[in-house]
Specification:
Layout: H1 2-10, H2 27-37, H3 40-54, H4 59-180, H5 189-196, H6 203-211, H7 216-341, H8 343-355
Helix pairs in contact: 1-3, 2-3, 2-7, 4-7, 5-6
Length: 356
C-alpha cells in the first residue's frame, strides 16, 4: 500500500494523453476517462492504476488506495472547515477589538479637541488678563513716580516761599522798627547815618529819607499799612504751612492707597498667572492626549485594514482549496465507480493510452 501511495504522489506526468475513441458502447466510459486526464489528480490516478494493473496488483488494493485517498481528502476538508470556522471567529474577535480601539480613540480625539478649544480660549483670556494687570501695575508705578516728583517740587517751592516770606516779614519789621524811631520834629540825620552803614543801595535808607518828610499823621498811616502787610504776610505764611502739611498728608495717603492697589493687583496678577500655568499644563496634556489618540487611531485603523485583508485572503484560499478538494473527491468517486462497474473498459482505455 505504501508503494502505491508513493507511486501516486511521485508521478509528475503532465503530457496530455490522446486516446482513440472506440465506436463501441464503451465510448461514454472513454469520454469520462479522457475528461479525468485534464485534471492533475486524474492523470496521477490513471497512471497509478495502470502501474498496479501491470504489476498484477489485486483490485481490492487499488480500491482500498482510492478509498484512503478519498477519506483523507474528506478528513482534510473537515479539518479545513474547522480551521476556517476558527479563523472566522478569530477575525471577528480581532476586528471587534480593532473597532473598539478605533471608537475609543475617536472619542478621545473628539473630547480632547473640545477641551483644547476651551483651554486655548482660557489660556488666551488669562494671558491677556495677566498683561492687563501688568499694565495697570506699570501705570500705578508711573503715577507714584510722578506724584513723588511733584511732591518734591512742591516741597522745594514751599521751602523757597517760606524763606522768602520770612525774609520779607523780617524786612517789614525792620522797616516798621526804623520808621517808628523817626520823630518829625527831630533831626533825621542820625537815623540816616546809621542806615547808610548798611549800604548805599539799601532800600530802607531810601524809605527813611522819604519818610523823614512825612508829617506825624502820614507816618502813622504808613506804619499802620506796614503792620497790616506784615500781618497779612504772616497769615499767608501760616496758611501756606497748613496747606503744605495737608499736601504732605494727602501725598502720604495717596502713596498708601497706591501701595494697597499695587498689592491687590499684584496678588490678582499672581493668581491669574497660577491659573494660566494650570490651564497651560492642562492644555498641553490635552494636546498630548489627542496626539496619542491620533496615533492609536492610525494604528488601530491600519491593524484592522491588515486583518481584514488577511481574513479575506484566508477566505479566498479556503474557498479555492475547498473547491479543488471537492473536485479531487469527485474524481476519486468517479474512478471508484468506473472501476467497480466498468473495469474491462478501463483496462482497454489504459492499454490504448499506453500505446498512444
Amino acid at each position: 500500500m505504501k508503494l502505491i501511495l508513493i507511486a501516486l504522489l511521485g508521478l509528475t506526468l503532465t503530457q496530455a494523453v490522446f486516446v482513440k475513441r472506440s465506436n463501441d458502447p464503451s465510448k461514454a466510459v472513454f469520454t469520462q476517462l479522457e475528461a479525468m486526464e485534464e485534471h492533475e489528480l486524474g492523470r496521477k490516478l490513471l497512471d497509478t492504476i495502470a502501474l498496479q494493473l501491470n504489476n498484477k496488483a489485486p483490485l481490492g488494493d487499488i480500491a482500498k488506495m482510492l478509498q484512503q485517498l478519498r477519506e483523507n481528502l474528506i478528513l482534510n476538508q473537515q479539518e479545513a472547515d474547522q480551521k476556517h470556522a476558527q479563523d472566522e471567529v478569530d477575525c471577528e474577535t480581532e476586528i471587534y477589538q480593532y473597532n473598539r480601539r478605533i471608537d475609543f480613540a475617536s472619542n478621545e480625539i473628539t473630547e480632547s479637541t473640545q477641551e483644547i478649544q476651551t483651554l486655548s480660549a482660557k489660556v488666551e483670556q488669562l494671558t491677556q488678563d495677566v498683561e492687563n494687570k501688568q499694565v495697570q501695575l506699570d501705570i500705578l508705578n508711573e503715577q507714584e513716580t510722578q506724584i513723588r516728583e511733584q511732591r518734591a517740587e512742591d516741597a522745594d517751592s514751599f521751602v523757597k516761599f517760606e524763606n522768602e516770606t520770612e525774609n520779607v516779614i523780617e524786612a517789614v519789621e525792620v522797616i516798621i522798627q526804623k520808621l517808628s524811631s523817626i520823630q518829625p520834629d527831630q533831626e533825621v540825620l542820625a537815623a540816616l547815618t546809621q542806615l547808610n552803614k548798611i549800604g548805599a543801595s539799601n532800600p530802607i535808607l531810601a524809605l527813611m529819607q522819604v519818610a523823614s518828610t512825612f508829617s506825624a499823621e502820614q507816618l502813622n498811616n504808613v506804619l499802620n499799612k506796614l503792620g497790616e502787610v506784615s500781618n497779612q504776610l504772616a497769615e499767608a505764611l501760616e496758611d501756606a504751612r497748613a496747606t503744605e502739611i495737608q499736601a504732605q498728608l494727602d501725598f502720604e495717603a495717596l502713596v498708601v492707597e497706591i501701595a494697597s492697589q499695587r498689592e491687590s493687583l499684584s496678588a490678582a496678577r499672581e493668581d491669574s498667572e497660577r491659573q494660566l500655568q494650570d490651564n497651560q499644563q492642562a492644555l498641553d496634556l490635552q494636546k498630548k492626549r489627542k496626539e496619542d489618540a491620533t496615533d492609536e487611531l492610525n494604528a488601530a485603523s491600519s491593524g484592522k485594514e491588515q486583518k481584514e485583508a488577511e481574513c479575506d485572503s484566508w477566505r479566498t484560499q479556503y474557498a479555492e482549496d475547498s473547491e479543488h478538494r471537492q473536485q479531487e473527491i469527485s474524481i476519486i468517486r468517479q474512478v471508484e465507480e468506473i472501476l467497480a462497474t466498468k473495469l474491462s473498459n478501463v483496462k482497454v482505455y489504459l492499454q490504448e493510452r499506453s500505446s498512444a
